[in-house]
């Protein structure tokens, strides 16, 4: 998608652009087939997150997993349509349902991320207040001169929190990148295939990184 967007306006590239778009369509269909079992995985994950002790992550992650399961159901129906097994399926309707489910799932993930950030921000501020007149260890010296008065202090403290918690940062980046597609499809924030393609690449790289290094994956 990104490559076809970058070269579609160049001369003598029409055939290449057409091939890239055909490849994009084929890969999309293949991806839907490989995701057929993900509905079960999402339901199992939803059952697991109902056991979380903290009510906010429990609600956000369970809602996210359940709506993601619905998204995979819609995705499977669209796949049946694409291979000709269900030609009577209303593609636009099912695609809209799938996008809405995916959008809500991402919003729940982002709500969980913001809860984690808020908790750590509050913890850091309290830590700063209780230790501001004592000897600070090396771990807390980064926050020594930071105050939450005003936007600058807040952003600086937020930067320090995300810097100290890479799994939270990566999860936030991935969810924000994934959000670009549903926002465009639903007409909430129209972009272009170049932006969506770039965000997709960045999201995939973060996903690969968390698989290669499990310690970078945000724990549930």
Q: What does the overall shape look like?
A: globular
Report the mean per-residue pLDDT as an integer. 88
Global structural class: mainly alpha
- Gyration radius over CA: 21 Å
Number of H- or I-type helical stretches = 9
N-end to C-end Cα span: 32 Å
Number of distinct beta strands: 0
> Major sheet: size, sense and barrel closure?
none
Strand content: under 5%
Listing every helix as H and every strand as E from the N terminus to the C terminus, the arrangement reads HHHHHHHHH
The percent range for helix content is over 70%
Low-confidence runs of at least 5 consecutive residues: none
Topology:
Elements: H1 2-7, H2 14-34, H3 38-49, H4 55-82, H5 91-131, H6 150-164, H7 166-178, H8 180-185, H9 193-212
Helix pairs in contact: 3-4, 4-5, 5-6, 5-7, 7-9
Structure in a nutshell:
The protein has 220 residues and is mainly α.
Question: How does this structure look, described?
Answer:
- InterPro entries: PEX11.
- One of its GO terms (biological process) is peroxisome fission.
- Keywords: Membrane, Peroxisome, Peroxisome biogenesis.
- It is built from 9 helices and no strands.
- The chain has helices at 2-7, 14-34, 38-49, 55-82, 91-131, 150-164, 166-178, 180-185, 193-212.
- Helix 4 packs antiparallel against helix 5 (91-131).
- The longest helix has 41 residues, at 91-131.
- The protein is globular, with a radius of gyration of 21 Å.
